[in-house]
Amino acid sequence: MRELWSQVDQFIDGALIDSDPAAPARAAAEDAGLPPIAVTAGMGKFLSLIAGSIGARSVLEIGTLAGYSTIWFAEGIGEQGRVVTLEADPRHAELAWSNLQAAGVADRVRLEVGPALDALPKLEAESVGPFDLVFIDADRKNNPEYLGWALRLSRVGTVIIVDNVVRAGAVLDEETEDPDIQGVRGSYELLAAHPRIEATALQTVSGKNYDGFIYAVVRR
Ligand code: SAH
Ligand code: DHB
Ligand code: MG
Fold first, then answer.
1. At what angle do helices 68-77 and 23-31 cross, to 10 degrees?
2. Burial of 161 (0-12, 13-18, 19+ CB in 10 A)
3. Does the C-beta of 45 come closer than 6 Å to ligand 2?
4. pLDDT value at position 23?
5. For residue range 140-192, what is the model confidence (pLDDT) as tens digits?
6. Separation of CA 92 and ligand 1 centre (Å)
7. Domain 2-218 - what CATH class?
8. Per-residue pLDDT reduced to its tens digit, 6-52
């Protein structure tokens, strides 16, 4: 099925994405041997459209990789907007910065290198935020903590999107010993119990296999 999902992705890209501003970033990541785990073009444009639809001026991204999704966000928020993106791996961050410059959006982006759980308290201490949109796409074991930080850096109406929350159905495994899946499951539990958030999740298929994302809105 994955081959078919991949072909349909290509069909959708061909029909609806006549120019992908982040395509050179994906190519550079591939050349550098980074893992091919950036969002698909369809998902990148979707994130960009959501950011534009809610009039987002500030986006927080946890997990930059080579800046593919960052560039889509930067497009979606326009010249006046700002993306803060957090990346633990200096090698990823270095390539991301050169990709952001090549895409002409580096002046809208602040890239923090180091573990996100170190950067997030720093952002709070600096009173950066509240953010209009938060995208969580890093080490899934920490997703519940990232959600907590997303809330602290949010206002009523902030949209929080969490990538990779289905993992080909592994999310169903209540007995899992995998810390990443525990983190994914923990996100649902936290959201279900949280009085300030309304959330849903959508399953996706693509060349990246069978996965999904959470879409949450801070309500009060
Ligand atoms: N959002 C990107 C893909 C991110 S892949 C895109 O769609 O283009 C996940 C990234 O999270 C990797 O680059 C990985 O190095 C980074 N990461 C992993 N653990 C992290 C941590 N604790 N803090 C910050 N980044 C982390
Ligand atoms: C994978 C996919 C992702 O979107 C991600 O952020 C990390 C890993 C994967 O398929 O392994
Ligand atoms: Mg992801």
1. 160
2. buried
3. no
4. 98
5. 999 999 999 999 999 999 999 999 999 999 999 999 999 999 999 999 999 99
6. 8
7. alpha beta
8. 999 999 999 999 999 999 999 999 999 999 999 999 999 999 999 99
What does the pLDDT look like over 191-204, one tens digit per residue? 999 999 999 999 99
Residue 116, ligand 1, Cβ within 6 A: yes
* Distance, CA of 6 to chain centre: 20
* DSSP β-ladder status, 133-136 and 58-62: parallel
- In the chain, where are the structural domains located? 2-218
Q: Answer yes or no: are the C-beta atoms of 110 and 40 closer than 8 Å.
A: no
Phi-psi region of 191 (alpha: psi -120 to 50; beta: other; left: phi over 0): alpha
Among the bound ligands, name the one nearest to the CA of residue 143: 1
pTM across the whole model: 0.98
Task: Render the burial of 124-157: b for 16+ CB within 10 Å, e for the rest.
Answer: eeeebbbbbbbbbbbbbebbbbbbebbbebbeee
pLDDT at 195 (0 to 100): 93
Token pair for 66: 């080579």
